[in-house]
Design goal:
Blueprint lengths: L1 H35 L2 H7 L5 E4 L3 H8 L12 E2 L3 H7 L1 H4 L4 E4 L5 H9 L6 E4 L3 E4 L6 H12 L7 E6 L6 H8 L4 E6 L10 E3 L2 H5 L7 H17 L1
Helix pairs in contact: 1-10
């Protein structure tokens, strides 16, 4: 009898796993289809050789969808505010600064994100002070190797920086971003912040957040609007 009960339990677990895998496959296909319609125009407005930096995984999503080499280290990771702004303000220094591994985040949001993530991931300080969460890594060695290799590919003369309102984003964050000397775009979910240049209000982020993978099609929509407006100037 015990063997029969265990067999039934195993079948139930296997069935649940199969259903979950089917759901994930269907969900990912849905998001891929939402992105696909934007790809032809992205290829037109994002030239080969452009380095794209983002505070989250979005830059990596762009390179993946365009089937191009990563010319940016901001893939598979997130840099919280205000650290991301400081990173951009001092890019030449931080792209060559060493990484120092730490056990915990100094930010409550960072620690909450780390403890609720689907797996353990490494956290490092760039130059001893800016915090990086290597969300899609489980190995410090792999994270550091890819970070350094991709930092070496950044072209500061052919650069576009993008930010999305997540976590510790304040009006001061947006004001500092607006002063950066690069081509740029900040996607926010508070309308008053659009008083600054290169800032767009994204109503789709208000209720469901700014997930760079599931909402990549939303990023693409507003990014293309911005890139097209640049061409007209």
């Amino acid at each position: 009898m015990r063997k029969i009960i265990n067999w039934i339990k195993n079948c139930e677990i296997f069935g649940i796993r199969n259903l979950r895998n089917l759901y994930i496959k269907h969900r990912d296909k849905k998001y891929e289809n939402l992105r696909l319609s934007f790809i032809p125009e992205l290829e037109k407005y994002i030239p080969e050789g452009l380095s794209i930096l983002s505070n989250n995984c979005f830059a990596g999503r762009v390179y993946q969808d365009l089937h191009r080499s990563y010319l940016s280290p901001t893939a598979g990771l997130t840099i919280l505010y205000p650290d991301y702004i400081t990173f951009l303000e001092n890019l030449s220094y931080y792209k060559t600064a060493p990484l120092m591994w730490v056990e915990k985040s100094r930010y409550p949001r960072g620690e909450s994100m780390r403890t609720s993530w689907k797996h353990w991931y490494p956290i490092a300080l760039i130059g001893g002070d800016l915090e990086i969460h290597f969300l899609h890594y489980t190995s410090k060695q792999e994270a550091e190797e890819k970070w350094k290799r991709r930092c070496n590919r950044i072209d500061e003369d052919n650069l576009f920086v993008i930010a999305a309102a997540q976590g510790n984003c304040t009006e001061e964050t947006v004001a500092r971003f607006a002063k950066l000397p690069y081509r740029k775009l900040f996607l926010v979910k508070e309308q008053y912040k659009t008083l600054y240049p290169d800032v767009i209000y994204v109503r789709e982020f208000v209720k469901t957040g700014a997930d760079p993978y599931r909402k990549a099609h939303v990023y693409y929509k507003y990014l293309l609007e911005h890139l097209k407006s640049e061409k007209k100037c």
